[in-house]
Design a protein that fits this description.
The longest helix is centred in the last third of the chain and has 19 residues. Helices cover 43% and strands 11% of the residues. Helix 7 packs across helix 8. It is an alpha/beta fold. The protein has a six-stranded mixed β-sheet, with helices on both faces. Strands 3-4 form a two-stranded antiparallel ribbon.
Length: 328
């Protein structure tokens, strides 16, 4: 949610023997690359060795870094990645640094089985969380105080966040970029990575299954493509069914089976995404944003923004919107 502003400027990734290269690569791709040539934000980014020495990945190659766990004290975002290293109790100094980070307002993001480090440290006690579906039973058994949800892509509690698997770590990272910089920046990073900006109609943590590839010519894709082009109109389930050339009950079932949400939930997400874009990139009135995104009125737009994003349209624009240019 956007109710708590997120600052990202300094990122650290703890690594130890048994770190998984793919998950580590996700963290590096999201936060470790210099994209300033496109006007995108850059971060101070470093790996921090848990043991203070070079570490060996699960693929067998060695990773060297000049930094130990003290590096985490400077970070406002700490990324915990998967690997066999999470199978042992976390290093006491790592636990200490994670608690200190949370207490000073830093965000801790866990990709896939990286959530086991948070759980072992007690930082997920009483909180909703997720991890890869292969490991949910084990996490539930080992850490019963965690409110585990095995059916979501990611969970963001505000201070800590967890993702289901490696690819879901990308979804979570893009979500955090939206919290920190807005939807436009997150979308540009996603475009550079050649991945979807988000794989549902809005709040990815409610998604049950990944969104289908919209390049395929199936009934759901056809009606989705049409709906995205007509978001300023009132769209009913009958309209979607007509575009898909199936019965309304059939399109509702297909959305549930393929997309993982109802047509209504997907539509709300698409309308919110358009409203976010308009609030960020234009100075049109909030009432006009509401009409163009299909919410009809500013009151309805405000209701959905508050419910799904934890802020108001005006508050979102104040944080992420364009600034009027000053006359010389």
């Amino acid at each position: 949610m956007l109710s708590t502003p997120l600052k990202i400027s300094n990122v650290a990734v703890p690594v130890a023997d048994g770190v998984a290269p793919f998950e580590l690569g996700v963290a590096c791709e999201l936060f470790g690359l210099d994209r300033s040539d496109q006007g995108l934000p850059g971060y101070e980014f470093d790996l921090a060795s848990v043991t203070g020495r070079s570490v060996r990945s699960t693929a067998g190659f060695t990773i060297s870094t000049a930094f130990g766990l003290d590096r985490l004290a400077e970070a406002d975002l700490i990324v915990l990645v998967a690997g066999s290293w999470v199978e042992t109790p976390p290093h006491p100094q790592l636990v200490q640094q994670l608690y200190a980070a949370r207490d000073r307002g830093a965000h801790i993001m866990a990709i896939c089985r990286g959530a086991f480090v948070l759980a072992a440290a007690g930082l997920l006690d009483g909180l909703p969380a997720t991890t890869h579906w292969r490991w949910t039973d084990e996490m539930a058994r080992r850490y019963p105080l965690v409110r585990l949800d095995p059916d979501v892509l990611y969970v963001d509690t505000g201070d800590v966040s967890t993702s289901a698997g490696t690819a879901a770590g990308i979804d979570l990272g893009l979500h955090l970029l939206r919290r920190a910089h807005g939807a436009t920046i997150a979308a540009e990073v996603a475009r550079r990575m050649v991945v979807p900006t988000h794989r549902d109609g809005g709040q990815a943590q409610y998604l049950r299954l990944p969104q289908p590839d919209l390049t395929t010519d199936d009934p759901v894709s056809r009606c989705m493509d049409w709906a995205v082009e007509h978001l300023d109109e009132a769209i009913t389930i009958n309209d979607l069914a007509r575009q898909a050339q199936v019965a309304p009950r059939t399109i509702a079932r297909m959305f549930h089976d393929i997309v993982g949400v109802t047509p209504y939930q997907w539509m709300i997400g698409q309308r919110l995404a358009l409203a976010q874009q308009l609030l960020e990139t234009s100075t049109i009135t909030i009432s006009t944003v509401a009409r163009r995104s299909g919410f009809g009125s500013a009151d309805t737009l405000r209701l959905h923004f508050t419910r799904h994003l934890g802020t108001t349209p005006a508050g979102y624009r104040q944080k992420f919107g364009v600034r009027p240019s000053r006359k010389p």
